[in-house]
Specification:
The chain is α/β, with parallel strands linked by helices. It is built from ten helices and nine strands.
Length: 288
Amino acid sequence: MTPTLVRHHRYADSSAPVDAGTRARDWAEIQERMLVPLYEAVYERLEVGGRTRMLSLGCGSGLALLIAASRGARVTGVDTDRERLALARERLAADAGQDAGHGRTDPRARLVDSIPAAAPDGEAPYNLLTAFQPIGCAAGDSEGLAPALASAVPLAVRGATVVLAGWGPPERCATAPVLRVAARLTESARTSRAGSGWRPALRDDLEEVAARAGLKPDGSGRVSCPFGYADVDSAVRGLLSTGLFDAAIRATDRTQVEKEVAEALHPHLRPDGTVWMPNVFRYLVCVS
């Protein structure tokens, strides 16, 4: 299961205000699948299966959970974005042939909006914690991760595996120049202190988070995660759904950000109108 090009998305006015539900759906339908190679590489390396009890921090709209559950794992997903969490519930319910309207999801899955106080009743503690939302390309994007890990680790068995993910070196991420648009627009409005401005990924970003959370690194890997879109409009909507351009939108306006992101995508536009950007992501395997 690997992403190529997302299906074509056509919108009447891409500059119209986007509500939280539309933005979450853009993430689920356009952007989230770009990280599938990362999920699959980690699960293959760790032999995720029927004995796995996974707690996923920042689970988004649930694609990583769905893949783990399809391998037999029991999963709990945590995300503070209620709209993304609702889509995760729909996705997991549909996969299990159940009715999301009645609040039921895959019996192997649990979805919550905050880190639970304990593992589900009657189940063993978690033995795998994941934080797949990549860090290392926006100022302060790892600040909340160490405290979240500190809250989650006590829910797992001693010596549980913890996986962190981050962007690879800028020279190996074609999307990096596009993300610089966020920093430039934010800084030009003198609001760079708002955070979320792009910065180059540093070699030890993941290790620093692990150290702050009291985790012991036990291996790492790099995975190719190309970003492929059916057209520029889909690429703009997918990228804006990540939240990496929020500060730039606050500093200027959404129309300006969309325009400049579209311009930055031109070097990656192929003759057939599709957009293709090779990227490398890194993951760190730790022991709690």
